[in-house]
Amino acid sequence: MAVPVVDPSLNSSSVEVDTGVSDPPRRPRRRPARADVLAIGAYALLGVLVCLNYWGDVQHRVSSHLPTDHSWFEWLFAHGAYSVRHLENPLFTARQNAPDGVNMMANTSLLGVTLPLAPLTMLLGPQVMYALYLGAALSATAATSYWTLSRHLVRSRGAAFVGGAFLGFAPGIVHHANGQPNFVSNFLLPLIVSRVLRLGEPGRWRRNGLALGLLVAYQIFINEEMLLLTALACLVVVVAYAVQRPRATRERAGRFLAAIGVGGGVALLLTAYPIWFQFNGPQSYRGLQGGVFHNWGEDLMAFVTFARDTVAGDEAVEKTIGLTEQNTWFGWPLVLVGLVALALLVRRSVPARILAVLVVVFTVASIGPKVRFDGVETDVDGPWAYVPDDLPLVEMMMPTRLSLVVVGAVGVLLALAWDALARDGRSPVPAPRTGDDADTSAPDAGSRRRRVLRLAGYAAIAAALLPLFPRPLPAQQIDPPPHFVTSGGWRPYVPDGRTLVPVPIPSNVHGLPTLRWSALTGQEFPIPGGYFIGPNERGEGVFGAPNRPTSTLIYSTMDADRVPEITEENRRQAVEDLRFWRASVVVLGANPREAVLRDLMTALLGPAQRVDDVWLWDVRDRV
Known about the structure:
Organism: Micromonospora maritima
Number of helices: 22
Largest sheet: 4 strands, mixed
Shape: elongated
Structural class: alpha+beta
Transmembrane segments: 37-56, 130-149, 227-244, 256-276, 329-346, 353-371, 402-421, 452-469
Region (Disordered): 1-30, 427-446
Domain DUF6311: 82-376
Keywords: Membrane, Transmembrane, Transmembrane helix
C-alpha cells in the first residue's frame, strides 16, 4: 500500500518540505535516467526472485499457502481471455457455478488486468500469465512508488529507491503474493495519492481532477478494497495537513473541491454501470453472512515479528500469531528505526508529522473487535467492537488490512529518513579561517562527525531492512488435468447449453484440481460449483455455491474415505441435481480418493466408462 505524502502548499516540482532550503539546481537528464533504469531493473529482478519457485515448473506448481486462491486467479486470467475471444460481458460469467453463474464485479475479478492481457493469456496460457503478472505487479508497484517519491518528495534517488523497494516488496505485500495478486497490484495507488495531494494547484484543477478520475476508475477494476484504504488514508492526510496549515488549506480549498468534483464525476461516469451491476446485477449480494471478516484484527506482536516469507522469518511463529494475514510483520529492528526516524523528523517536517498521524490512526484501527497479543485474544475491546457489522462498505472490510496503510507510511518514512541523511551529507561546511590564530581542526572535526552519524544512519536503515529481504514464495506440485480434458476428448459429450460435471465438484474446500480443468481449457465448457462469493437464500454473501445433496454426499465421502449406504432417495436426488446442473457427462480423473469416489458415483449412476484417462458417466439420456 503506497501512501506518499507531499506538502500540498509547495509546487509539485519542489522536494524540500518546511526546511527553508531552495530547490536544488536541475541535474542533467542523463543521471536521473540512469538511476531510474537501475532502480526499475533491480525491482524487476526482485519480482523474478519472489516468483522463482513457480518457474521451476510453471505448468504444475501453485502456491502452497493459498493453492485455491492461486487457481482462482488462473481461472480469472482465462475468464478475461474467454470474454475477449467470445465478446461476452466480462461482468458476469456462466462458465462457473452453472447454471446460476457468478457476478464478477461482486468478486475479486481483476478485470483491469485480465482483459488488457487477454491476448497474452491466449498465447501463453493462464499458468504462465499468472506467474509473469505476479512478479510484474510487485515490480511495477515499487517502480511507481519510486517515481512518485523521487519526483514529489525526496531529492535523493537512493532514498526513493529504498522507499520504493519497501512499498513494492514489504513483508505484508509479499505475503499477499501467495495466491492474491490483487493485493500486490498497487501500481496505481502512488499515482492516485500524489494526484490527490496536487488537486489544489493553481490553474490545474481541471487536469488534475480528470487524471484522478481516470486513475480511480481504472483502480476500481483492479482492487476496490485497496482503493477504499487509499481513500481513507488520503482523508486522514488532508485533515492532518489542514490542521497544521489552515491558511494554505483555505487558499486551496476551492480548487481542491472543484478538482474532486471533476474527478468524482469522471470516475462515476466510467464506472456507474459496473458498480450498479455489482450491487444489483444477477448473483449480487448484500454483505457477508455473519460479518465473518470483522474478527480478523492484527495481533500487536505481529508488528515486531519477522514474516514467514523473509530471510529472517520463521514458519513456527505464524502458527501462533499469524492466524489471519501477515500484513505488517516489520520485525523489531524496523519498528525501532522507524520510531527513531519519526522522533528526529517530526519537529521539522510536515510530511513526517502526517505520517505519524497515519501510523497511529491505522495501527489502532487495524486491531479489530478484541485486542490480540501473541496469539491470545484478550478481553480488551478494540475499535471494531463499536462498529456495526452491517455498516455499508465497512461490512466487507477486514480490520487487519487497515494496517496496509501503516506499511505505506513506513515506506515513505524510510525514504524521508534516507533523504535527510543524504541532505545532511550535502550540507556546506564553513570555510576555515586563515591566519596564525585560525582553528582549522573544528570544521574538519564537525565534518567527520556528520559523516560518521550519516553512515550510522544508513547502516541502521540497512540493518532494519536486510532481515525483511523476501524469499521465493513457497510452491507445491499439482497434478495436471486429465488428457481427456486437455485434448478436447470431452467435446462429443458436452453439447451447447450443457455442462461437464467434474468429481469432486469445485468448491472453496474441495475440488481444486477440477476448478483448474476449466481454467486450463480456456473455459470452453461450463461447470457447476466453483470458488467465488454469491448470494444465499437471504441475499447475504457466502463462499461458494450452496451445496446440493449430491455435492454434500461427495464431500462427506471424501472426508470419511468410505462410501456410505446409498438409498433410492440418494439416486433420485442425484438425477435431480444433475438435471439442475444441466449435466451431460460426469467425469472423474486421477484423485487421491479416486477409488472411493468411483464406487460412490457407480452406486448413484451405474457403471462408468473408461474413456482415455478418466471415468465417465454419460447422463444425457437421464437428464
